[in-house]
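G., the chain you wanted modeled:
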Amino acid sequence: MAQTRTRLTHAQLAELARHAFGLSPTPPDLPADTDFEDAEGVLVASTGTDGLAVREIPRWRSPAEVRAELDRRGWAQPAAWVGRPPEDAGGLPDRLLVLLPVAGTAPDAAEISLTAAAWAQRAGGRELMVVPVPVTAAGPEIGWPELATAYGAGPVASRVEPDPLSTGGRVVVFTGLSGAGKSTIAGRLVELLLEAGRTVTLLDGDEVRTHLSAGLGFSRADRDTNVRRIGWVAAQIAKHGGWAVCAPIAPYAATRAEVRQLVEAQAGPGSFVLVHVATPLEECEARDRKGLYAKARRGEIAEFTGISDPYEEPTDAELTIDTRRSSVDESARLVLDYLTGS
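Predicted structure as tokens:
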């Protein structure tokens, strides 16, 4: 019987690397009789009758490889530093092994390169070796001293737990019924962000349907595919520090959660902002400029959200807006204030 083949997420690859490197005694929970590949299609591990077999994990350097590199350099247990460089690097030792906890982020995430570049700028003649490691900054799976020891370093120069890496990119997703005002508020928000000098991309639901999701219908599977495509594009923008504003109906909670996870894996915690435009159904029907609700009521449009297909109201939205109580400009500025911390 042929092995099933599946692609692992960045978080799953990090978990696999931790176990393979001896940084975690717990193996990842993976299905049996399966071949696993990374985002580039490289076969990294398999499960079979003999259990889990790890082949290679291209992104991560194992502790053994790093220790061997330290030996080649003639470094005997250099001091370790975890995370970003300090503002004042004056008191740092002459040789430093920098460990970047970046589990769950994409290998080409901009923040990894930016952090390495920041270290190079502040090195001040010091010898540095910067190594991404498959642990998370906010909740490390292994203590920093133990991590440093595994990679061949001596005492940790910094015991301050670093903040999770973030690219600075943001994704704002407006969700709500058809006619709720999502696209109008999203468009005004983009104007305000541009006025503030921010580079931003608008992914409007109708325009995405015309281009990125042409050919999809309105079944649950097609709706989910449409929202996932929007989320993927937005995550790529945020991964490289850009901002994206999206305005799909996005009726299903599980798919919205999936997009949140995707974006935050690429751009860091807090990079995804969900805005529920909570205009009631009766108000949306009253606005019905396109006559869509009337057609749905007559049965001329199947699987219409709010009429013949469910809308699962968010319980995890960062902001909720009722357009009966705030104008388009007021609504957009509420979101802007949230994004800028005003």
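The chain is about 35% helix and 20% strand.

Shout if anything looks off.
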